[in-house]
Amino acid sequence: MKHTSFWRAGLASLALMAAPAQASEAALDQEAIAYRKGIMKTLEAQFNAMAGIIAFGGPADNLRSHLETVLISARMVLPSFEKHAPGGTSQPHLWDDWAGYTRYMQEFEAAVAMAIEASKHNSVNQVIWYTDQISCRKCHDIYKQKGVSGGVEYLGY
Ligand code: HEC
């Protein structure tokens, strides 16, 4: 009897795994939007953590780890937007201007890479200076809607 329930549970989870294939396009879009927002929230968490370290004089070495986490996450941003799924707080023109969007992301990554380099050789103050050059806002101003929930305007990004 144990066997029966084991297989029944197995079949049920197989059915669950198959479910996304049958999901409507709109539902898939919602998944894609939630996924890319999750990556953005990872970036936000790293910046909040760095602001905290700077504010309370926390472990300076961790600044580099947070920057490295930002770089890894930043590399996931473009693939996460590849699915043309307008919605969330994205600007609908983002997908018509993919080359421009890509350029902003590459600039962002380059600034993060410079801050990581600085963290290997320079004082904390210089690392903070480089970190300040990383602008989330430059991209948000063009490709993210303002004045809607989920915004990060309050953080000054
Ligand atoms: C190259 C463009 C780009 C860069 C760089 C960028 N973002 Fe975003 N961000 C977006 C877009 C587009 C959205 C809207 C996503 C959506 O709702 O589909 C967004 C949304 C967000 C959101 C809202 C997520 C939600 O739950 O609605 C947060 C938070 C965020 N970004 C944080 C950051 C932080 C912090 C940085 C910098 C460290 C950053 N972003 C850099 C394009 C960018």
The low-confidence runs, each spanning 5 or more residues with pLDDT under 50, are 149-156
Number of domains: 1
CATH architecture designation: Up-down Bundle
CATH fold label: Four Helix Bundle (Hemerythrin (Met), subunit A)
The CATH H-level homologous superfamily: Cytochrome c/b562
Largest sheet features:
none
Describe what you observe in this structure:
- This protein is mostly helical and 157 residues long.
- It has one domain: Four Helix Bundle (Hemerythrin (Met), subunit A), CATH 1.20.120.
- 73% of the residues lie in helices and 0% in strands.
- The chain has six helices and no strands.
- The protein has helices spanning 2-22, 25-56, 61-81, 98-121, 124-132, 137-143.
- Helix 2 (25-56) packs antiparallel against helix 3 and helix 4 runs antiparallel to helix 5.
- Mean pLDDT is 86; it is low at 149-156.
- The structure holds heme C.
- Heme C binds at residues 33, 36-37, 40-41, 43-44, 47, 88-90, 94, 101, 104-105, 108, 136, 139-140, 143-144, 150, 152, 157.
Describe the structure using short key phrases:
157 residues; mainly alpha; Four Helix Bundle (Hemerythrin (Met), subunit A); 6 helices; disordered C terminus; binds heme C
Describe the structure in brief.
The protein is mainly α and 157 residues long. Helix content is 73%, strand content 0%.
